[in-house]
Amino acid sequence: MTWLIVSLTLRQLLGQRRTWLLVLLALAPVLIAVIFRLTTDGVRDPREFVADGVMSNVMINLVLPLAALIFGTAALGQEFEDGTAPYLFAKPLARWRIAVAKVLAAWMGTAGVVGASVLATGVIALVGGTMDLIVPAFMVAAVLGALAYAALFVCLSVLFERALVIGLIYVFVWEALITSLAPGAAYLSVRAYTLGVARALADTPATIFSAQLGGAASFGALALVVLLTLGYAIRRLGSLEIARRA
Question: Among 5, 74, 137, 183, which has the highest number of CB atoms less than 10 A from its own CB?
Answer without folding.
Answer: 74
